[in-house]
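Provenance

Sequences were taken from public entries as deposited. Structures were produced by running a predictor on each sequence independently, with no templates supplied. The record for DNA-binding transcriptional regulator, LysR family from Pseudoxanthobacter soli DSM 19599 is shown for reference.
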Amino acid sequence: MASLDVESVQAFVAIADLQSFTRAAEALGTTQGAISVKLRRLEERIGQRLIERTPRHVRLSAHGAVFLDRARDFLAAHEAALSALASTTPRRFGLGIAAHVAGPELPTLLAQLNAYDPGLRIEVRLENSRTLLDAFDRGELDACIIRREDDRRDGEVLGPEHFGWFAAPNFEHRQGEPLRLAALSPSCGVRDIATRALDEAGIAWTEVFLGGGSSAVTAAVSAGLAMAVFSCRLAPPGTVEIGERFRLPRLPSSEIVLHSTLTDPKSRAALRTLAAAFREHRAMAG
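Predicted structure for DNA-binding transcriptional regulator, LysR family:
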């Protein structure tokens, strides 16, 4: 009977979850070539092709789909065996995610992180980017995924972020009246982007809805009470981009950045998995 190599099975599961050899390599902290070698070694031991790969797609074969759950069970059993000999104290992982960054993929990403390392006690905090970065600098968070703030250049770039002016299709703005805005809070960096662009263009504005969280701002915009700036990939369903219609200024792009102080190998490996999955979901959304 063929024996299974843990690293080869980890490579297979990462490829299956992220649907990308490149993202799997990032998640496991290795190279794409090494990932390919590990997968080939596993397929040779099993005697079946597990992954179908074309220039545009990576997907499970029929045998791979059958094997995936067993592979997860194998890795979980391996982790349980190691954990039985290690400290039983769960490791805290304080993670901050900016409200303007978190999308509908967030539950899936956190589930993947939890499945990758059940020994992590994940504590998630959703705030604006500036608040989270301050908390990270004070040592209150182990890692944060935020929109880049000011001229600070540290952190790992996860991808670009493009913004637009969004409102309900029936949103009305009378000529000569201030543009009605909704925003998260006075300290929100995305609010700063919007108001600075309007001020530089000489367009009068007034805030008619401030604070209450992303869902509250989304509700105000969807109801037609105001317009707001959103990431183009996270614009609320049913809203439309109104920049051209009202001759609003173009908004500068930003970057999504990961900051981390994690040092132990297992936690850093889990964080790499989260970062790779985040990039993959952004690529799929784009």
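The first helix runs from residue 6 to 18.
The chain has a mean pLDDT of 85.
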